[in-house]
Write a structure and sequence with these properties.
globular; 25% strand; 33% helix; 3 helices
């Protein structure tokens, strides 16, 4: 069974309390974003998804006038051991809001549609490097 490479990012009232969390500035929250993440390529890929979704939750809530005291996003997935092909990425959202349920449902649907990193991954992402090795100087 593939390993689960989970990361959590949160801000506001739902920022992770983990003392080892990485703190990053965030334009939508005063306290920044806190991320619990290991420094592996797999975790960083999932951090990109979670961070993008979190950012868009705050942006889209603000644009709609929805109160959002806190948000947390956990993204996870695995990789096939023989090829390291992703087995997919899923994410879960927790919100601290007084907005009505129907407004929250619409917010989540819009964010899922507009979040750039998940959109890019859903389309497939070509990755390349120059053929000549980089050398100092």
């Amino acid at each position: 069974m593939p390993e689960d490479f989970a990361v959590t990012v949160g801000a506001g009232t739902l920022a992770p309390a983990d003392g080892d969390a990485v703190v990053l500035p965030h334009r939508w929250t005063d306290g920044g974003v806190r991320a619990t993440v290991a420094f592996t390529g797999a975790h960083l890929l999932h951090l990109a998804v979670a961070g993008c979704v979190l950012n868009d939750l705050f942006r889209e809530a603000h644009a709609r006038g929805l109160p959002l005291a806190g948000a947390a996003v956990t993204a996870r997935g695995g990789f096939a051991p023989e090829t390291w092909a992703s087995t997919g990425v899923s994410y879960e959202v927790r919100l601290d809001t007084t907005a009505p349920d129907d407004a929250v449902t619409r917010l989540l649907a819009v964010v899922d549609e507009v979040a750039e990193i998940p959109r890019a991954l859903r389309q497939g992402v070509p990755v390349s490097r120059p053929t000549a090795p980089a050398r100092p100087g």
